[in-house]
Amino acid sequence: MDKNISERVLELAKEKKALLFGSFDLxxxxxxxxxxxxxxxxxxxxxxxxxxxxxxALAYKVGANAIAGPTIGADPIVASVIFSSFxxxxxxxxxxxxxxxxxxxxxxxxEGTLYEGMNVMVVDDTCTTARSLFMAIEAIENQGCTVVQxxxxxxxxxxxxxxxxKRGYKFFSFLTANEKGEIWPSSYSDLSEL
Length: 194
Hints:
seven-stranded mixed beta sheet
């Protein structure tokens, strides 16, 4: 993947106001010097293009034949990646993971074509505590699949990505933040070491 993808994602996040600086209340409690709304970026045509391009390159690199994520944060990521994979003539499947199993119809927790033995890349727009990512990982693994990569657009560096790595999963993010609210793009070397 080209280093410029992460740099362009950061530029777009600022341009589209998906990334704001100031003082913001967090849903998990506490304050943050920045606010990131990944859906503003993933639902923007150019943002969607660059995120799909980067995520797809990563999925191919790790041998994923499906991309999955917790609904609703991952929905536009999954959609843009599977569309791009078809255009590349190297299609990978998309999966959306609900928090809970449906109580009606097929009573599924995972939407999409899923079969045992799939290699799956699990994605989300943001990684903070990784609670949503772990929910999706568990649901995927419970179906007999292997999670070969975990990725997000922004890693808030608040413990989630470290816990993902501690549990033995590979983790990548386009952007990384620190407690001061400084945000930087991932470098090419970060990508080549996956």
